[in-house]
Amino acid sequence: MASMASWLPFVRAAAVGWIPIAANPLPSYLQDAGFSQATAAAATTAGAGSDRVRINVSGHVFETWRHTLDKFPMTLLGSDERDYFYDSTTAEYFFDRDPELFRHVLSYYRTGRIHFPRQDCVAAFDEELSFFGIQTDAVADCCLEDYRDRKLENVERQSDDLDETDNGDNILAIAAAAGVELTVRERMWRAFEFPHTSTPALVFYYVTGFFIAVSVCANVIETVPCGVDSATGESSSCGEHYGLELFCLDTACVIIFTVEYLLRLFASPDRCRYMTSVMSVIDVVAILPYYILP
C-alpha cells in the first residue's frame, strides 16, 4: 500500500494529459478573437481579456464582456452608437447617468430581464430605459405589477394637476404617453368618473341623467289629480288612471339605475370602499324598494 501511495501523484499528473480540463468548447467570443486554450488560460490568469468592456457611469466603473452587450443590438450599449461615448484616454465608455439605476440596466444585458427598483422614482427609471433603448416589456414578471401600479399612481398624480375639465379629457392621453395600457375595468371606471373621455361614456352619462329626470317626473305625475271619480265624487290621481303606464316607465328607470350601479361596482378599484360610500348607499336606498315592496 505504501508503494502504491508513492506512485499516486505521478499517476494523477499523467492523467492531466489524458483527460480534457473542460468538457465544453471555448465560448464563441474567445474563438472569434482567435484565442487558443493556452491564451485563454493565460488571459484568465492575468485577470484581463481583450473583450472585456469598462463602463464608467458618473465615476462608478462597471465591467462586463462585450458579447454580453452584443446580445441586444437594438439597444444603446449593444449597438455601434455606444462608440460615441468611448473615451480613448481611459479606454472606457463614459455615461453621465445614475449609477444606482445603471446596475439594473446592466442586469438586463446579463439576464434579458430588468427589475424595477421599488425605492426609486418610476419616472427616473423610465428615463433610463428610454436613454439606453430598453423596452418596458422587458420588466421582469416579479416586478411588473409594482411597476404598473407606480406608473398609474404617477399618471393620476399628473392628472390631479390639471383642471377638472382637462382631467377627464387628457387622463387617457397621459396614460398612453407614460406607456401604461389601461385594463377594461380601469377604462370603465375612468369613463364613469370622467364621462368626457370618450363618446360612449358621454352618451351613457346623458342617458342616465335623462332617466333620472324621467323617474322624478313620473313620481310627481303620480300624485297630480287627473279627474274626479264618478262613483265616489272624489278627485283621483294620475297614478290611479295611468297605473300600468307609469309602472312600466318606473320599471325601465329602475333597470337603468341597477345596470349603472352594477357596472360601477364591477369597475370600482376598491369595491368595499365604493359600497360604503355615500353615493352608493343613496343609489341602493333608491333602487332597493322597487324589488322589496309589492
Task: Give your account of this protein's structure.
The protein folds into two domains: 50-182, 2-Layer Sandwich (Potassium Channel Kv1.1, Chain A), CATH 3.30.710.10; 197-292, no CATH class. The protein is 59% helix and 9% strand. It contains 14 helices and six strands. The protein has helices at 2-15, 28-32, 37-46, 66-70, 99-111, 122-131, 141-160, 164-177, 184-193, 199-222, 238-241, 243-267, 271-275, 278-292, and strands at residues 52-57, 60-65, 86-87, 92-95, 225-228, 235-237. The strands form two sheets. It has a four-stranded mixed sheet.
Summarize the structure.
59% of the residues lie in helices and 9% in strands. It is an alpha+beta fold and 294 residues long.
Query: How many β-strand stretches?
Result: 6
**Uncertain segments of ≥5 residues (pLDDT<50)?**
1-26, 29-49, 163-169
Strand content: 5-15%
Measure the end-to-end span: 105 Å
CATH topology term of the largest domain = Potassium Channel Kv1.1, Chain A
Number of helices: 14
Write the element-wise H/E pattern from the N-terminal end onward: HHHEEHEEHHHHHHEEHHHH
Strand order of the largest sheet: 2-1-4-3
CATH class division of the largest domain: Alpha Beta
Count of all domains: 2
Please state the structural category: alpha+beta
Main β sheet profile: 4 strands, mixed
Radius of gyration: 36 Å
CATH architecture of the largest domain: 2-Layer Sandwich
- CATH homology group of the largest domain: Potassium Channel Kv1.1, Chain A
| Outline type | rod-shaped
